[in-house]
Amino acid sequence: xxxxxxxxxxxxxxxxxxxxxxxxxxxxxxxxxxxxxxxxxxxxxxxxxxxxxxxxxxxxxxxxxxxxxxxxxxxxxxxxxxxxxxxxxxxxxxxxxxxxxxxxxxxxxxxxxxxxxxxxxxxxxxxxxxxxxxxxxxxxxxxxxxxxxxxxxxxxxxxxxxxxxxxxxxxxxxxxxxxxxxxxxxxxxxxxxxxxxxxxxxxxxxxxxxxxxxxxxxxxxxxxxxxxxxxxxxxxxxxxxxxxxxxxxxxxxxxxxxxxxxxxxxxxxxxxxxxxxxxxxxxxxxxxxxxxxxxxxxxxxxxxxxxxxxxxxxxxxxxxxxxxxxxxxxxxxxxxxxxxxxxxxxxxxxxxxxxxxxxxxxxxxxxx
Length: 368
Ligand SMILES: [Zn+2]
Ligand SMILES: [Zn+2]
Fold this sequence. Notes:
mainly alpha, 2 domains, two-stranded antiparallel ribbon, 42% helix, disordered C terminus, TniQ protein
């Protein structure tokens, strides 16, 4: 029989959407010990010598150690759940109670966490609306007084979240690459340059840097790119990618809030070209391995092709508004349960993340 577990002396307030891993680390930091020391207390109590992943009794014990109300460390799907395109009911984004998906854990606001590093899965992006503290991966910044950051965060939490877009899903990485292309080609100083100077970021060369210095532009652009009414006609392959890019360009420039330039146009052409190649692949997908000619329904094919071709814009097309053209029969689409378990990988043209190998050296997407 186990002896009753005492609670630890220092009380911590749980922050919004805090992960069990993050909270355990923070609890250890607050007590000037290592995470493994906390784990050892839990394991001794459970009479085990290995750390069981996703075991409710572990969560219960940590809640007890920290004197938190029971269930406090369980993620709250109601407030923080992600919208997914899983095919359980449809392939449109929905908050599916069978998938109960959450965002990838991200660095939490240091003000909220009392200066102790932790992670959160709360609905939202990189900006804490209470403290105007910016936190993403290893980057922290104070963005008090920077115009439009709060609006961008609100937009991400409302409209974009409901389209299944978060910091880790790829669309913002692609939008960041558009903004960087525009910035590289622009000759006159812009508001982005002002922010770069203030924050001390010399280049928009990584997703992290671009996100921090151009958050409003990236979020506004992602809203345009993931709007089915905007992107579906652009993905219509019966008109050339060049023409489609010229149609998209004004909307992209408007979202950035500047005039288009040659660099932005060149990038837009590449991006639309990539998306069109993915669309042609999409039209060729067969319904399953067992059938030779039966084509995969467009709604499922779009999601499968978006992943396999790493073309996130396809996720946002409305299949009912696309021309139903007969593609050259190609690969078989995987089963729905396979598709819904795929993770997210940024597009090849997206701005790469710091510490991540250049896209050319990454494993080819899903070589099936
Ligand atoms: Zn589902
Ligand atoms: Zn905060």
